[in-house]
């Protein structure tokens, strides 16, 4: 494809350190923190899950975040350009590197498709929460779920929830408008660029999100009976501990920190050479983990209070957020106001993540096609509408098509989180060990600041990170094939 030389733009970038950090936190704080994290904590016994999770964040997660920031900054490009530059320096050709670098881009695109569908759902929930339409239904779970075509609280996966939505006509013209709204808002932020759009948006949205999270958490933990939920969340339950607790904690760590999604390479490519990579990584770790804990304290005590201490209520997957929690908030004294605040919080979390996921593709289009940002955003609109519509049909007309027993979006979710992300992270380890060299990475990091975790980084990138990634990959595949149960 020929280069559009008349529309090539000078590469944008973050204007401040905190703008960059807040954007990275925004990419990490998404639906995984809000509904996935509390469910994982419940399933694997509270602090019994949290302790290995914290350990993996500090020891392995930090290495992954640091190296992706550094590779992106070094190449001034996303994973496709960064991998391509590294292999070209070593072999004289960038083809193999670019092919491998495309793995996280494809994974991010798959995730973005699902995110825009769910984001449209959240936009509608937020609107009805503010207008009072959601709570006029009272506490009837069936009525609340029926508004969105989700009448089955047993829907444990995003695919099952979307299938129920489709069967009730959610993807018709009236409801489908909300998905278009989600896409328009996301791309409007991206069209304004890094400094003018993504950075400014995150500087507003992330502080508001944190304040709202603290407010809802305080309200949640002070409800009658909520203290039992706090204990369940913070006290280890060794009965629930198993080998899969460790594997699940590793998987959640990668998901939560946005490792191997292409986002951190892309955002790293937008920073100046004097940015302290290690300190920025620590700040992202602390804020992301803190918000995940707040999410657990928002949801688990509230559901415990409402259900009379039944932890099984927390296993409802997407319906936990979209059916159970509206019912919980509607039953509270100030539940309507709390519900409005909660859904605004969820909206901000989903929006920042959706923007980050789509930016990885837009940035790659700009780098590889040499098009303007506006033109690449236009291409992204077409891709999201076409693939989003195709995914929606997978829960209606094409529901009979199954891949390993999964619907389209569930299969995409499995491929992204359980296969492509570990493969992309493993490829990064190989790239550093065999192409760039650990000394080369250390040199890149130390050009702007001391690298205090240098010795730990060498050990974990050389030994523990590859082993953990192989364990996650094999365990996930074995689970899908029914060999083991997670």
Please explain how this structure is put together.
The protein has 486 residues and is mainly alpha-helical. It is 74% helix and 0% strand. The chain has 19 helices and no strands. Helix 2 crosses helix 13 and helix 3 (47-75) crosses helix 4. The radius of gyration is 22 Å and the shape is globular. The N and C termini lie far apart (45 Å).
The main sheet comes to: none
Provide the residue-averaged pLDDT: 79
Number of strands: 0
What percent of residues are in strands? under 5%
Shape estimate? globular
SSE string? HHHHHHHHHHHHHHHHHHH
**What are the low-pLDDT stretches, counting only 5+ consecutive residues below 50?**
1-8, 137-159, 161-174, 394-398
Number of helices: 19
Give short descriptive properties of this protein.
mainly alpha, 19 helices, 74% helix, 0% strand, disordered N terminus
Briefly say what this structure is.
It contains 19 helices and no strands.
List the topology elements.
Layout: H1 17-28, H2 31-43, H3 47-75, H4 79-91, H5 95-131, H6 141-146, H7 158-167, H8 173-191, H9 194-221, H10 226-234, H11 243-256, H12 263-268, H13 277-307, H14 318-330, H15 335-369, H16 373-393, H17 408-436, H18 438-446, H19 454-480
Helix pairs in contact: 1-9, 1-13, 1-15, 2-11, 2-13, 3-4, 3-11, 3-13, 3-19, 4-5, 4-17, 5-8, 5-15, 5-16, 5-17, 8-9, 8-15, 8-16, 9-13, 9-15, 10-13, 11-19, 13-14, 14-15, 15-16, 17-19
